[in-house]
Amino acid sequence: MSKIEGQTSLIRDDGNMAIINTDTNALHKAKATKARYIKQNSEINTLKREVREMKQLLLQINEKLQWQEQ
User: Fold this and answer.
1) pTM of the prediction?
2) Measured CA distances, 49 to 19, 24, 41, 53, 62 (Å)
3) Do 11 and 22 meet the contact criterion of CB atoms below 8 Å apart?
4) What are 7-24's pLDDT values in tens digits?
5) Running DSSP on this structure, what letter comes out for residue 6?
6) Is the dihedral of CA 46, 37, 24, 21 positive or negative?
7) How many CB atoms lie within 10 A of CB 12?
């Protein structure tokens, strides 16, 4: 492994020439950001599903009320 000049958290794997980031704080931050994004996306999808269900219930109620008026 070789240090990259001017970069404190990057090293180069001499075997395959890959650059490796050794900054574990950045890794944890990226994982937390990804987990937060996944959770928010899941919550949004749940809300969309619930709104869709509420819309269907309102349509059913409306149909029953229209039938009773006739």
Assistant:
1) 0.64
2) 43, 37, 12, 6, 20
3) yes
4) 889 999 999 999 999 999
5) T
6) positive
7) 15
